[in-house]
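Subject: sequence -> structure tokens, single chain

Hey, anyone have a minute? Need the predicted structure for the following. Not urgent.
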Amino acid sequence: MRVAGTEPTSERILLTGVTGQVGGELLLPLASLGEVVAPSHEQVDLADVANDFRSLRETIRTVRPRWIVNPAAYTAVDKAESEPELAYAVNRDAVRAIGEEADRIGAAVIHFSTDYVFDGTGTVAYVETDAPGPMSVYGASKLAGEVALAETGAAHLIFRTSWVYGGRGKNFLLTILKLAREREVLRVVGDQHGAPTWSKDLARMTATVMRRCDAESSPLRQIVERLGGIYHAACAGETTWYGFAAEAVRLQKKQEPTAKLALIEEIETSEYPTPARRPMNSRLSCKKLEEVFGWKMMDWQKSLSEVMAEL
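Reply:
Had a minute. Here:
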């Protein structure tokens, strides 16, 4: 319910997770849309269940943003199996608090989710209406966050993505490139299928969608309620973790012909057991995103080559 006298400003954007891969990339494109307020983890605690997310709620009430963009998440997939309370606090309960406060002031919410909400069966790309079935605590907590946000009644868009990486932070690409210089052989899983997604492409897409919504003459809440819901947003094409690693090392070798880099060896998931189960099929169809907003995600190989050129 919107409270009189607490309507959002016309230009402020509240951005969480600014030190993360997607959050960091969002700063620049969002700055072209309005004043970006990006509190640090110390300023806004997304795990503060005990105090009902007081710092988060107070920040939203003080800033009164037009948009709340939430890429912040608990993403330690394996660790989540042993600390589910923390995973659910950040990925579900904090998201609910964001939705409740956004609904109070009529702000629109953009939230990021994951391919891990699916069980990974089948061989075709998932569409937004496919039934979820997470196999891990992480996936279940992210799905719970999607549901919690929708239940608050806030106008929202949820972008499910996969295998996010970039030239900054901690991610699969940077780990592989580091280990390739330290080892002779790297054994990488080759039977999990999906698309590596560049954090910068996600950020550009997000800003484009927001700009499209802002351009309409109706109140933002009405626009997002009409166009909102769940969208898949992953890079085009598909590969495996092995294919991703092999292409990254090939490109590195092309840049540094004399460098001694590891041989990439393909293995099966059963040869690399982890606490959390991973989907074997992480393919996401992004047709809806293109049809509604006219945005086509980059091909994963093209985006990888651009990232490698920037490193």
